[in-house]
Amino acid sequence: MTYPIDRLVFRPDDVDLARSPLAGHIGEDTYVLGAFNPGLTRLANGNLLMMVRVAEALRQPVRDGHVRSIRWDGGRYVLDPWPLAQVDTSDPRKFMVHGSGWRVMALTSLSWLLPVELSPDGLDRVAIHYDKAVAPSASFQCYGIEDARISKVGDRYLMTTCSVSPERHSTTLYSSANGLDWTFEDIVLDHQNKDMLIFEGLIGDRYWAQTRPLGDLYFAYPPGSEWRAGPAINLATSPDGHHWKPYREPGIRPHSATVATARMGGGTPPILTDDGWLSLWHGVEPKEIVGIYRTYWSILDRDDPSKVVRTHHAPVLEASPTLTAPIEHQMYLHDVVFTTGIADGGDHYVVASGEADLACRITHVPKAVFGL
């Protein structure tokens, strides 16, 4: 599906690395591997705010028979060398470390979050707030902070992020009174969960969230089931936004009728419509190493989000080679769109996505697409 307003609004070359949190620490040339997967919210002045994930990588990661990773260490950034004979570097985003008896991974970049203020329609850049960047500040974030999702609940902005370290692969929570100045709250999920999305509003007196726990083992559905075993979108509730309990009923699950969503996870924080909670989520079709990422949608019951009111197997967004053609020389992935933010634009939604793990994409999606 194509839309009249659909463009890249922020690219790697738009980042000034002289103002990066890493500047002056490691003494080597770095570059922006990607500026992508932006959380999105509307500020009090009407402008939109993207929290852009900036993945900063070494220009020359391999030296003297070693591949090096960047790590935060007590307020500074250091380089860790890994012998090439001990790793698999076939995925440009990471390398696998051999010899542990289980999967061990390190990253080729370190991510931090950059606030980028946009015009109300999301199409023009107003300001880049380097002074308000969110960077690692604890050992459980030593390999970076990734993939912000922003929800406004009442007068409070809540931002979930994925904090990466050898200690844990956790979900961390930040809060803000204005959407620009963020305060670290706490670790709120302690297992591998890349996609925690807090609903934009309470149900009854409780916070709700979509989660996506990961693992290497999934139990099979019985033969003939309409569901496919694998990563799925679960639900959790909380009295305060800090302490979360898994919901008993399942959320959105992969459907056996299509391989395009064989793996799935959350995209945008669910927002309330007249018909229920609108949730945009990603489905991944297996292909080569990374797969094909597309964006899909479901509307969930306003009182019990485990019930799907309606959905569709056709994607809302797919990767766009036309949009990325001007930056093709910087691309290292294809077939990937990863939607991470949504805001009401009147007769349409302003949808923010990461395109090819490289740039930020803004699309105006008519509400009629969702039957609204």
Automatic annotation (TrEMBL):
Keywords: Glycosidase, Glycosyltransferase, Hydrolase, Transferase. Gene3D superfamilies: Glycosyl hydrolase domain, family 43. The keyword Hydrolase applies. It comes from the Bacteria. InterPro entries: Glyco_hydro_beta-prop_sf, Mannoside_phosphorylase. One of its GO terms (molecular function) is hydrolase activity, acting on glycosyl bonds. It holds the Pfam family Glyco_hydro_130. Belongs to the glycosyl hydrolase 130 family. This is Glycosidase.
